[in-house]
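Hi R.,

Here are the chain sequences for the assembly we discussed:
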Amino acid sequence: MSNTGATAPLYEELGLTASEYQMILETLGREPTQVELAMYSVMWSEHCGYKHSRSMLGRFPTEGEKVLQGPGENAGVIDVGDGWAVAFKMESHNHPSAVEPFQGAATGVGGIVRDIIAMGARPIALLDSLRFGSLESPRVQHLFEEAVAGIGGYGNCIGVPTVGGELFFDPSYEGNCLVNAMCIGLLRADQLTSAAAAGVGNPVILFGSRTGRDGIGGASVLASQEFKEGDEEKRPSVQVGDPFTEKLLIEASLELLDKELLVALQDLGAAGLTSSAAEMASLGGMGIELDVAAVPLRESGMEPWEVMISESQERMLAVVTPEKVAAVTEVCEKWGLTATQVGVLIEDSEFVINDGSDEVGRIPVLSLTDDCPKYQPESKKPDYIEASVPSVATVFSSDSVEDELLDLLGSPNIASKRSVWDQYDHMVMTNTTVLPGHDAAVIRLKGTDRGLAMTSDCNSRYVYLDPLKGGMIAVAEAARNVSATGATPAAITDCLNFGNPEKPEIYWQFKNAIEGISQACEAFGVPVVSGNVSFYNESNGAAIYPTPTIGMVGTLDDVTKTCESGFRSDGDRIFLVGDTLSELGGSEYASHVHNIVEGPIPSLDLGVAKATCDMVRSAVSSGVLKSAHDLSEGGLAIAVAESCVNGAIGAKIDLSSSGQELSIVESLFSETQSRFLVSTSQSDGDGFLKLAEEFGIRVAEIGEVGGDAMQIGSAVELPLDVVCNTYQQGIQKWIQKT
Amino acid sequence: MTVDRPNIGVAIFPGSNCDADSLHGLELAGANAIPVWHDHPETGSLDGMMIPGGFSYGDYLRTGAIAQFSTVMDLIRQMADDGRPVLGVCNGFQILLETGLLPGGMLRNRDMKFICRTVQIRLESTGNSFSNQNASGDTMRIPIAHGEGNYYADPKTLAEMNSNGQVAFRYCDNGIVGASTNPNGSSESIAGVTNAAGNVLGMMPHPERALEPQLGSTDGLGIMRSMVESCISSRAAINV
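And here is the predicted structure of the full complex:
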């Protein structure tokens, strides 16, 4: 064995602690080789090892009758009926996007797509949840525009529609933007593919792109230790996406699976070959032997450790039985991809790395995966929550709600995101029946009557002010969005973006948000089937708002029975579903108009939340609703405006009959949960009221669709074109202001 | 497969991504749709060919620049010469321009951004294989999705095309063509052009995305059904 040994300080530079290094020494009974140390450093990183989060993630409810695959594989999978299943997952690509937004966001899409392929599913939809600092900042504008271009550049090329997502601006993301990508894939339920290795002696095949020095991030100090300064060639580089190769990889992988040529399939993501091979062996309870000399390289002179941890994109690893190797190679060649045997499965649960005939590493597999160090950090309620004054939010008064409404309507967090989704091909595959811009996108499943609704949601300001309730609300909002289309929430994936978990206040946010998400999932009966944790989202010591993004998939038995958010015809009756309380704490109104970020955030009764969703879904399915829109940021006023804009028709709202004693500001902008704005034809209105009564949900008739103005009592009377222009041009105007 | 369904091929390049949509769409429009792989093309009895959207060969170098050298293009040139209908949509249009089967060239969109949205186009000419279901002046709502759809031809070529009736579609708003309804900066708001014979059409909008009420528009049916009918009539003419 060519054991060059490793010097003590090196492990620290690689991000390992002294006690972790001690664990490695004990596990191996000797000093690690260079390759081994590099492998441990990436596998025991927070990103791969979930060191600080694992103990909490067990809290999530993960079981349900429709769950075919819960957390632990590349993506979660649920049964959606007629023999079809859906695989989905969301993942962060925050740090690369902060450095190089175009490639960072693009490779974020590429990575999550490969997770879905690895389950044997064809990717059918993408969503992207983006958060940036204040849009006034030129740097933020650059990050925003480049990230959007990167997502479009990648998703458009691979022919998977980008149908939804979020866009939120807040100074807390100034130095650390969030790019979370979610992919949904479709597969036959009986063709579910696993990453679990099986069959001693079976060849391990690497296919797709060649391996280069891309993305050898944390381990780059190995290079500076080993090589002279200024040795440009050895310098690690940012991962670069090649969506054309990804498209070929999708088709080749699906053809390989279709022809039943593979035993197991796994994508290469963070920590590259090390992580993929270790996870396959670990899941299969066996060992693996790889030869780095066999790996096709993009550049010469790569060291074994570089090959093992390279994050070159667009690669997959497969386990194949020996007699099928030729057929696998043939399929890959058809798609113009290299396919090379790089290893073999072995009985002992060891990860052996060879460089030709030299053994350069030998590690117990589980020490890289299950036995990664786990920490239970301290947790402490942050001072800012103790200090929060619960009364400020109730004292807003205004003489000019009309101006404030327009101000809010054109603000970056509320204004139309059309300029973003216009850059994404959201129609390719000809399945998108509810396009972006409504509560949730709907995709039909060709050849069946069925459809899927999908959304991603998180009001991180709420989570910041009250992580427990904020976590609940994130799930409840996703459920409302899905229900507004008539779909039944089926399962969620999550992307948990937080600051440094070693700070007790951050860990407290994390713990409470998980508890809130879990309680809401239990109440709605939706399991968590996959997810991702991203810690250390901080800059200059300041953390982002805690942002547990929820990606939810809902199912529709009949995809023709859906509803959109826009008002439809003159004379239709408008109803407000749910009570409105004085709840302006943490609201978009308080933040944007008054620059106040203070609790208490809106209350949430999970029972009411679910019953309200059930009622609205039932109303959509029965066909009595002509429009349905959930109320969230900006409250009733913004919901009315959006329903007017999306339907290109005015509305006349009269709140005097709602029977609730609130100020005009509260009526318009309060963000009380579990509310919807719906409309019916004249004749269906009474039927709807009866349905609501059966569900025990309070509904108030508040107006009528029609005309070319948006009118709310005597406080607001705005021409429709002013409302439309303000909403549709908001983001562009904001960018041009600076 | 019924006898009166013409066989229409869909050329599939590495990187094509509207091939499945095109196969589905042609079937809906009444064709027997046949996938044709780029490097060993089906040479059976194809009555027409559709070149779908996507990013053939990654569209490296220039959109459609590599695809023009593909084996399947020999077949497509032959079919075009024989008078069989050939429809190129989006990347397919770009490829037809690169091969010289259609006049003009393609630039990046005026705003340098990818655009995906439903636009209106106006039918400008009925003297081709794709318009027998429609009348001149008809407007259609059809989605576009492209980063390089800014059609360019020099003034002389434009004049020729106009006099030959080779401008198939223009972007419009309720039938009115103007600068404000031109999404990508195309010369004369051109959305689609044919060859002089009228059997080869290239267009940026995706008719295969506008065939079913669930997707919001069925205005693409006229174009696709016209192609299907022309395939039947050109087969009869060629086989006489």
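Chain B has one domain: 7-238. Chain B is about 25% helix and 25% strand.

Let me know if anything looks off.

Best,
T.
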